[in-house]
Amino acid sequence: MNNTKWWQTAVIYQIYPRSYQDSDGDGIGDLRGIISRLDYLEQLGITAIWLSPVYKSPNDDNGYDISDYQDIMSEFGTMDDMDELIEQARLRNIRIIMDLVVNHTSDEHPWFIEAHKGKDNPYRDYYIWRDPVNGGVPNSLRSTFSGSAWELDEVSGQYFLHLFSRRQPDLNWENPKVRQEVWDMMNFWLDKGVGGFRMDVIDLVGKIPDQEITGNGPKLHEYLQEMNRETFGAHDVLTVGETWGATPEVAKLYSNPDRKELSMVFQFEHIGLDQQDGGEKWDLKPLDVSELKQVLAKWQTELGNEGWNSLFWNNHDLPRIVSRWGNDKQYRVQSAKMFAILLHLMKGTPYIYQGEELGMTNYPIQDISEAQDIEAINMYHERIGQGYAKEAIIQSINAKGRDNARTPMQWDTTRNAGFTTGEPWLPVHPNYKEINMEANLKDPDSVFHCYRKLIELRKNNPIVVWGEFELVTGVPDQVFMYYRRYEGHTWLVTANFSGEPITLELPELGQAGFIIGNYSRDHVDFKQLQLQPYEAFVVILA
Ligand SMILES: OC[C@H]1O[C@H](OC[C@H]2O[C@H](OC[C@H]3O[C@H](O)[C@H](O)[C@@H](O)[C@@H]3O)[C@H](O)[C@@H](O)[C@@H]2O)[C@H](O)[C@@H](O)[C@@H]1O
């Protein structure tokens, strides 16, 4: 394949630096800590690291509120540490993907400090200001972090827009000076040799606040084409947009190579399947596996050659999949591997969120005082005010809250799981004596070794990267089966999504050679097959 891009054959690993490895005992992960774990990541076999924000920030939203895009958060280290991370990673053939958070800045960014000084300030138009309407907010736009998206500035009497916290004012992308500042900053990082950008809520930058249009505004793609032209277009990098509402049609607009925008997007359709229709993410409903099959199959088949899928179950905003849709008790190891096998055999670029490869689990809280995340804390207070029962809110936070996946990495059985010698900023999950990297490395049947083998399988078998996908229908709802076909070869992936054995009779498939699975088998006989709880395997049919 002449036009093959490195990111099409890649596996990306996401690091949430605050929780990865602390090197100086302050209880907060840092860049030198990450450098010290690069050999581990090389052993896993990943191609690139998506680094959640490491820029200077007052941490209202743990780094997603940036006060200087060209400086490093002091808790994380220095620019010299960052340069060393890029170089040390490069020596291991690992690229660094920066998190690009340009829908908004921190309110401590010098642009906002200036803009806030008054209507005549040259930076005023870097942000979105509106006069009051009928003595109140300009309209009913809401913040993702609860409440109105408009905050009154007492000094000027105008409101500014913040689609996230009030300390994350939205940038005005209609102002060409703002876009030029963003391009200059991106080129600064490209000159350092980074491997690309993960673009935070990039679907919001074309917003028209007065019409209450936030996602997919009319100028969005014009801006992204300009970005491509002015920054990374001439570089061999990966660009992935976080796009919450994307459909396959919309995803093609972003990632059709002819349009010169992005490499791929994160779509979240599968992630919303346990959310009540018309509700917020906190309004829970059970997952229907049939729906999951339909949604993932749709994304696998509909992009065709006009786009490229990103494959993920987890990230720093989502609960851990093994606790969410698997069984993190009796079948923790089996279900963690089941999710890994199912996803890593699909077409697209897989993303692994730190600790997923160890089978780490959600961390439940009893009381809101234990929460650190602004989204959960704001929602709690808003819903208490609306009369919700405390127990119901805590249940939603334990199911969907972001702190769940942000507890420190579990490296070994020493104090604080080897994450820090100090007091960790968020508690270490008490199960670290059982679930940790050291134990995973020692056990050839561990979740880690399953991920390592899946990455190797992708590297060595073009069918995993390029094969056509076809969903198998007519099987029990809880069984997710699909074919991959490439150059006369067919592989079949089978996964039992339940904690019960399931009998399958598919005599037409006969016997098949075993490639990888989470129970020990040397072949699979489809004439009479009993799938074990959460069993998943890949076989070769032809
Ligand atoms: O920089 C601010 C945050 O930006 C990223 O995440 C954005 C948020 O994504 C989700 O919320 C979006 C909502 O989208 C749709 O309305 C859905 O219907 C809702 O269910 C979604 O909630 C997450 O739920 C939020 O937690 C995210 O903030 C970064 O990845 C975040 O870390 C930043 O905080």
Automatic annotation (TrEMBL):
InterPro entries reported for this sequence: GH, GH13_cat_dom, Glyco_hydro_b, O16G_dom_2, SusG-like_C
Keywords assigned: Glycosidase, Hydrolase
Domain called Glycosyl hydrolase family 13 catalytic: residue spans: 14-406
Pfam families tied to this protein: Alpha-amylase, SusG_C
Family: Belongs to the glycosyl hydrolase 13 family.
Protein name, as recorded: Alpha-glucosidase
Species of origin: Paenibacillus rhizoplanae
